[in-house]
Amino acid sequence: MRKFIVKRLLISVLILFCVTFIIYALLRCLPSSFVEQRAMQLAAAPGSKPYEEWVAQLNAQYGLDMPFLPGYFVQLGNLLTGNFGDSWRWTVPVVDKFVEVIPISFIMGAISLVLQLVIAIPLGVIAATRQYSKADYAITAGALVGISLPTFFFATLLKLVFAVQLGWFDVSGMVGRNHALLDSWGQFWDIAHHLVLPIITLVIVSVGSLMRYTRANMLEVLNSDYIRTARAKGLSERKVVYHHAFRNTLIPLVTIVGGSLPGLFSGALITETLFAINGIGYISFQSMTAGDIPFSMFYMTFLAILTLLGNLISDILYAVVDPRVRIA
Fold this sequence. Notes:
Blueprint: H1 2-28, H2 34-43, H3 51-61, H4 68-80, H5 94-129, H6 134-148, H7 151-165, H8 184-194, H9 196-222, H10 225-232, H11 237-259, H12 261-266, H13 269-274, H14 280-289, H15 293-321
Helix pairs in contact: 1-4, 1-15, 2-3, 5-6, 5-9, 6-9, 7-9, 9-11, 11-15
């Protein structure tokens, strides 16, 4: 196992090197010069340096005044040394802005992921064990509805019903009008209250695919020879389903759980925008549209690292969930 992990880590480093190269290439190929736009903004400040000096400084800082390959290695050196620079869009250090907005997106993503697993896996198992029953048809129909619903439509529908008509929640925002007047617990529950509708949106639009995936894998396992053998030995249906079949159904689900790691930190752009939540998804989108090269490089590289780490965790969990899997 140790040899496998070291080997995968070395391969991940090579892949990460390629990913950062592609990210830098895409940023260098942008049709408009965001460096010149940023230099104009900085030069417009009272007592600032001339525009030409700002252009030269920014190009030198990010290797944009060099040919492609030398410029890439300058940017790679900045990333390896932790020199991520200041965000052009938010005028603060990149890491500071990231730390400011990532907690709310992580909380939303983690809660929605747990709810998806708690809802989708049991319902998928029930649908598989009661195939072609009313429960199976109802669960399948609900899953298809969730898969088919666009995020913007469902979020708007929730706001119309629960915020506008019933008045249970605010239409948008993270805090209420009296947030500053509340104590610490009151402020906590105020924020939690405003996150209810966004989390419901994330769960409903995502739970359907996981439910269908669980049902399909459970049906495949239930039709296996060893399941028929277990039933022929006289084992109870509950033990056959939840002791033998369900453990093997978990194997492909491990891939989804491991692959969901980047999603916890990538944010939900549409949901955060519709509910006016300044999470990392909405902030990163604004940064990219504004040509914020430092923030974009940091954010996309960070997601690449998480993706590689999630794949490594999935491979390791295979051996934990299924004793038949051995990593040579």
